[in-house]
Amino acid sequence: MTEPVQGSDGKFYDLTLDPDTDDNTLSFIVKPLDLPPTVSAHQGPSGDTAAISEPVDHPMMESIHRKAFNDTAGDTHRKTFDEFGLPEALLRALALLNFRWPSRIQARAIPILLEDPPRNLLGQSQSGTGKTAAFVITMLTRVDLTKGSTQGLVLAPTRELARQIMDVIQGLGQYMGVKTQFAIPALFAKGRDFDAHIVVGTPGTALDCVRRGLLNLDHLKMLVIDEADNMLDLQGLGEQCIRIKSTIRHTVQILLWSATFPQRIVEFSKRYAPDCLTMTLEHHELTVAGIKQMYMDCLNVEAKFGVLVQLYHVLTIGSSIIFVHRRDEATRIAERMTLEGHKISVLHSALENGGAGRDKVIDDFRSGRTKVLITTNVLARGIDVSTVSMVVNYDLPMDKDRRIDFPTYLHRIGRTGRFGRIGVSISFVHDTTSWMQLMQVSEHFGVSISKVPTGDVEEVERIVNSILKHNQGMLPAVTKEDSIHARPGGHVRI
Asked: What CATH superfamily classification does 291-471 receive?
């Protein structure tokens, strides 16, 4: 069963694609579900009731709100957050932010993560499953607010993801009095000691602060590495994570999270997070449901730009992200699109205004002030922007050996079709080699990638409009999560 959605009548429905649908038409089968009514209030510690109606005004509150409901059909008992022994102030924030019930990964992971003595975890989870909230809830519960030392450290590969994680921490910790600080360029006071309970940063900056004696990890309780496969695979970042880990006590709880974990990363985690519990997905489960995957066959490399120009008005129906391989290519395409009279933003690690410039670009895109964003893989992982209806692979993702990068493809298209919605991905191919690479993607993930004639932009527009129509009025909800089952030997299969 797919993710339940809530209609305007307040009832829940199962929305599934009609199996008789052809490749170019989207139709759905809607079935009513007999689910309990939504929670309307949470009893606070003083007996007051905090209504769950409107979330607080916060940059990531929409994304947090969308993580509130998950399909728990098949569970003999639906857990509630109250059963986890969480602080009352945290429960109050969860209620306010419309976390009605824990997602499946939260329901299984949080009790394990809160065990004493703490357990390390290697967790594999699809994007949009609520795994960020899972480790944030754990960290907020473990922090001793009576002490001013840094007790939680979260490391992310990009400043964009670090800022998003911080938004979740501040949203869930808004009633706890938890103090937070960034360890990313331009967002912390240089030369000043860190005195926050929780620090979120990128590995290079965090390591530099540790070396300078500004960030003291002597009292650290929990270290989280988000997008760990990317972090430990990239030159430099992995080594920085290792050096940070070497400065902490062996009793610190270590969590490594990602949507994909190649075997070499699993082996590495055994040394990085000793005796860790492992949560993994079966290989065939590493697909993104709810995304209509298509491709367009361009005449040659240069012809791809002309096709992109034709698609522009479709890209702006919702919000769209265009992925290219190189930073200079992203800048060049953005400049050419601007000359064509089209408004487009560009985001990569070499922007002139540095971190502040990158922050403004992503904030403008998240708020809807800009609707088309061209970027490199800097934005491929973990970024939640609920309005993204289309992803374009202008260049297919390649690894350092010039082979198709399957995990990055998964992460890229996962920027759309989020929170139980439906999305579109379009990949450009321009020769036999690129076409064969895309067919490898189709075979690897066991999905159908349908061809759209290059000159048939109207068909793409029809599909996108159909998708947006179906997305309207849907309950903010995350994508389907597979159940987690305990296995012998400290392994949990998702």
From this structure: P-loop containing nucleotide triphosphate hydrolases (3.40.50.300)
Q: Is the pLDDT score of 172 beyond 70? A: yes
Distance of CA 158 to the CA centre of its chain: 12
Sign of the dihedral defined by the CA atoms of residues 117, 121, 126, 131, in that order: positive
Q: Measure the CA–CA gap between 65 and 67, rounded to whole angstroms.
A: 5
Are both 38-131+156-177+224-283+480-493 and 291-471 of the same fold?
A: yes
Contact 197, 110 (CB under 8 A): no
> Helix crossing, 406-413 with 432-445: angle to 10°?
80
Q: Which among 120, 200, 181, 110 has a CA at the least distance from the CA of 382?
A: 200
Q: For 462-474, what is each residue's pLDDT tens digit? A: 877 877 676 665 5
End-to-end CA separation in angstroms for the chain: 16
Residues paired with residue 223 on neighbouring β-strands, in sequence order: 153, 254
Q: How confident is the model over 63-97, as pLDDT tens digits?
A: 433 333 333 334 435 678 999 999 999 999 999 99
**Cα 371 from chain centroid?**
19
Question: How far is Cα 107 from Cα 483, in angstroms, rounded to an integer?
Answer: 10
What's phi and psi for 166, nearest 5 deg? -60, -40
| Cβ contact 476:64 at 8 Å | no
Contact criterion met (CB below 8 Å) for 280 and 494: yes
Residue 346 CA to residue 197 CA, distance in Å, equals 34
* Domain assignments of the chain as residue spans, ordered by start: 38-131+156-177+224-283+480-493, 291-471
φ/ψ of residue 127, rounded to 5: -60, 140
**pLDDT above 90 covers what percent of the chain?**
40
Residue with tokens 């938004």: 167
Amino acid, single-letter form, for residue 145: L
Cβ distance 132 to 123 under 8 Å?
A: no
Q: Are 193 and 214 in contact (CB under 8 A)?
A: yes
Task: Say which residue, 32 or 172, is predicted with more confidence.
Answer: 172
pLDDT band at 302 (very low <50, low <70, confident <90, very high): very high
Instruction: Decide if domain 38-131+156-177+224-283+480-493 falls under CATH 3.40.50.300.
Output: yes
Question: Does the pLDDT value for residue 294 go beyond 50?
Answer: yes
Rg from Cα positions in the chain: 22
